[in-house]
Design a protein that fits this description.
By secondary structure, the protein is of the alpha+beta class. It has 2 domains: 135 residues, Orthogonal Bundle (Cytochrome Bc1 Complex, Chain D, domain 2); 159 residues, 7 Propeller (Methylamine Dehydrogenase, Chain H), CATH 2.130.10.10. 28% of the residues lie in helices and 14% in strands. α2 packs across α6 and α5 crosses α6.
Length: 342
C-alpha cells in the first residue's frame, strides 16, 4: 500500500517523458517552411525599419500585438500564410503609405521563422495556402533573445555588400551653401504662421493641415503647371514618408538614408545638403522641426540632432534613448514648443 503511490508517480513521470519525446520528435520532423533564407533576411531588415517601434524588436509586442509566441499562434496558427500577408497588406503600417508587395511577403517569412519554422528552397508567395501551424511550432526563435542573428540573415551577403558600399559614401556636408536673409523662427511665428510658411508638420499646433493661401481656386486650379521636380534620396524599404517644412521661401526636407536638404522653394535649386548619422540605410522620419536658427531631426537610433538652418552644419547630437537598455527608436520627428524640443 505504501509503495503504490511512488510507483504511480514513476508511471506519470515516464508518461510525461514519453510525451515530451513525441513532441520533440514532431518538432524535429516539422517540414521546411514555404519560404527561403533570403526572404527571412529581407523581412528581418524591413521589420526593424517598419514594425519594431510598435511590435518591439523581438516581436514580443509593445503598442502592437505579439508576433512571435503563443499569443500569435493562438490567433494565427490555424490560418494560412497567405491570409497573414493579405491582412498586413490591407492594414499595415497604420496611417502610413503601403509598403511594396514583396516586403509584406518577406515580413511574413521572417515571422514564420521567428515562430520556429525553418527555411526551405520554396519561395513564399502572397497566395500561399500553407497553414501556419503546419510549419511553425510557436516556439520563439533563439535569436529573438539577442546574440546571433538568424541563419537566414547570415545568408544575405549581397545585402551586406550594399550596406558597406553605402557606408563608404561621403557623410557630413556634401553640398555647401547658405540660406540668404534667414529670419529666425519665433514662438509667435509657430503660434500664428505666415500664410506662405509651413513651420510645423501639420502646419499648426492644432494639426489642421490647412493652408490659408487663396491664390488657387476651383476656377483656376486647372491652369496649374509643373514648376520643378526634385528627386529624393532612395534606399529605404518603406519609401519616402517625410513632410517638408517651408520658411521664408526655403524648403527643408529630410530624406531616407539620413540626408537633410534645403532647397529654394521657387526654383528647386539645392542650397545645402548634410548626410548625417551613421546609418545610410535608415528611413526618413515623418517630420522635422524648425525653431530659432535651427532644424531639429530625430533618428531611428533614438538620437535628436540640431543643424544650422542657414548652412546645414551640425550643432549638436544627443541620445534620447539608451539603446544598450532597450530597442529605443523614433518613427516621427520632434515638435518645438516655447523653446523646448519635444
Amino acid at each position: 500500500m505504501k509503495t503504490r503511490p511512488m510507483r504511480n508517480r514513476w508511471i506519470v513521470a515516464a508518461a510525461l517523458v514519453a510525451a515530451g519525446s513525441v513532441v520533440l520528435l514532431f518538432a524535429q520532423q516539422r517540414p521546411a517552411g514555404p519560404y527561403t533564407a533570403d526572404q527571412v533576411a529581407a523581412g528581418r531588415a524591413a521589420y526593424q525599419v517598419n514594425c519594431a517601434s510598435c511590435h518591439a524588436a523581438d516581436l514580443n509586442g509593445r503598442e502592437g500585438p505579439q508576433l512571435a509566441g503563443t499569443t500569435f499562434m493562438a490567433q494565427w496558427g490555424d490560418r494560412t500564410a497567405g491570409a497573414l500577408i493579405n491582412f498586413m497588406q490591407s492594414t499595415m503600417p497604420p496611417a502610413a503609405a503601403a509598403l511594396p508587395a514583396d516586403t509584406y511577403v518577406n515580413l511574413a517569412a521572417y515571422m514564420l521563422d521567428a515562430n520556429g519554422a525553418r527555411a526551405g528552397n520554396q519561395r513564399l508567395t502572397a497566395d500561399s495556402n500553407a497553414t501556419i501551424r503546419s510549419v511553425a511550432s510557436g516556439q520563439r526563435a533563439a535569436y529573438l533573445s539577442g546574440g546571433a542573428a538568424p541563419v537566414a540573415a547570415q545568408a544575405a551577403p549581397q545585402q551586406g555588400k550594399q550596406e558597406n558600399q553605402a557606408k563608404q559614401a561621403p557623410r557630413g556636408i556634401t553640398v555647401a551653401g547658405q540660406v540668404k536673409s534667414f529670419v529666425p523662427v519665433t514662438d509667435a511665428m509657430l503660434r500664428s504662421p505666415d500664410p506662405s510658411d509651413w513651420l510645423i508638420l501639420r502646419r499648426d499646433y492644432k494639426a489642421t493641415s490647412f493652408s490659408p493661401l487663396s491664390q488657387v481656386t476651383t476656377q483656376n486650379v486647372n491652369d496649374l503647371r509643373l514648376a520643378w521636380v526634385w528627386s529624393m534620396n532612395d534606399g529605404a524599404s518603406n519609401g519616402n514618408q517625410p513632410a517638408p517644412l517651408v520658411h521664408n521661401g526655403v524648403l527643408y526636407v529630410n530624406n531616407a538614408g539620413m540626408v537633410l536638404q534645403a532647397l529654394d522653394a521657387k526654383t528647386g535649386e539645392l542650397i545645402w545638403e548634410n548626410r548625417y548619422g551613421v546609418n545610410p540605410a535608415a528611413p526618413a522620419m515623418r517630420g522635422i522641426a524648425i525653431y530659432d536658427d535651427k532644424i531639429f531631426v530625430t533618428t531611428g537610433e533614438a538620437h535628436l540632432i540640431a543643424f544650422e538652418a542657414r548652412t546645414g552644419k551640425l550643432v549638436w547630437d544627443t541620445t534620447i534613448g539608451d539603446r544598450s537598455q532597450g530597442e529605443y527608436s523614433n518613427s516621427s520627428g520632434p515638435l518645438a514648443v516655447k523653446g523646448k524640443v519635444i
